Amino acid sequence: MKKILTILLILMMVTSVVFAQGRQETSKTATENYSFGGSSTVAPIANSAIPAFEVKNPNVKVSYETLGSSTGISQLLEGTLSLAGSSRVLKDSEVKDGCVTTTIALDGITVGVNETVSIANLSMQQLKGIFTGEITNWNEVGGLDQKIEVILRDEASGTRASFEEIVHNKIAPKQNAIVAHENGDVASKIAATPGSIGYIGMAFGSIITEAGGSLLTIDNVKANVENVLNNTYPISRALYVVTIGQPKEGTTEKAFIDFLLSEEGQEIVAENQFIRLN
To answer: What are 69-84's pLDDT values in tens digits?
Structure first.
């Protein structure tokens, strides 16, 4: 009997060891899921970088949800997201709440018009007048006698926040404007609305021309990489990822940011028609 008890005890110990080892192996190989999201402008960079990042980090699964910069930052503060993409600078309240930005790319904001609009260039002052509602007809800026239809991004958009800060210094935009919810929506509304004007991240400018619209120069300067880098194109900005506090070493968020700033990550930035930092 004693011998049987001894054998049973040994078997229980062995089973415990095997079970513990199995749990350790499972924990080592378990997939960790991370939810990032925010700016629709940052989305192509993030979504192109994620598969390459996951190859280097096979136990990590990352998703990026296109929400708009403000919604992304709000959800970051709420704890729904652990990293947010933003195409605008932080508000004072967001800085006070602990948000920190890391610049991952540069960008310009392109202005596009419907094919019925006969002009090719606007000054910054004219652009300000149009988007604040002071200028309402194209004949006021050298075009045809035609009503100007203004297309804005929605209020969650970082592109809208950047455009308003740069172009009309946060003066309230034109009332009763048409609202578009993402870059493709801007392009389709410009194409479908005679006399219309709207703005879009520079990397997406081609979807306006493909839809039948045209792109304007601003102060006779074209929106392109060279002119953003030499500071001659007036509607330029940085693109960011946002964290609560400085990104911490050893975290997936820090590893993802480091990847975006690496040579491979910056090549992904360039492949998506944004401007790399180096």
So the answer is: 999 999 999 999 999 9
With CA atoms as reference, report the closest residue to 244 among 106, 84, 88, 47. Answer: 84
| Residue 115 and residue 189 in one domain | yes
Per-residue pLDDT tens digits for 33-57: 999 999 999 999 999 999 999 999 9
Are residue 47 and residue 86 in the same domain, yes or no?
A: yes
Based on the fold, state whether residues 51 and 162 are members of the same structural domain.
Answer: no
Q: Are residues 150 and 207 in the same domain?
A: yes
Q: Which domain holds residue 66?
A: 33-106+238-271
Q: How many domains does the chain fold into?
A: 2
- What is the pTM (predicted TM-score) of this model? 0.77
In a domain, residue 7? The reply is no
